[in-house]
Amino acid sequence: xxxxxxxxxxxxxxxxxxxxxxxxxxxxxxxxxxxxxxxxxxxxxxxxxxxxxxxxxxxxxxxxxxxxxxxxxxxxxxxxxxxxxxxxxxxxxxxxxxxxxxxxxxxxxxxxxxxxxxxxxxxxxxxxxxxxxxxxxxxxxxxxxxxxxxxxxxxxxxxxxxxxxxxxxxxxxxxxxxxxxxxx
Length: 184
What we know:
about 40% strand
């Protein structure tokens, strides 16, 4: 596997719609940076948040997740409660080529504040808004800024196209829009 460069990412985004909307270069004017970097793309977090709350003492069950465990907010700044988490989504919509696997890493600005971003790999031929999980590992409330950088996506090219892609097996998160809760 090889990591793809800024040239390749730009070409795929502008010619094949791999990333929409696409920001041509790193933007950092007073915000957490986002846009095209040397070997990746820093995506932004949208202004839609699902803040985890446990007022009903619910059990977190990935096979039977209760949506009442979240409070929905549309805001420019989201406050994550201490030792809790928030689900959000990228501003960008991704379309992954068949011979590419995309790995996501959190931004160091958030990591240095005890805020961890988690995303599973984007599989070949998956498309949609990426659901992001922000974990606040601190005992204090933490802020997330909408429309600013959240995480970096790295594009890894396989030695050949896969036999079966995410689209081929009709994956359950295909084409997701908005913040998407767990499905079985």
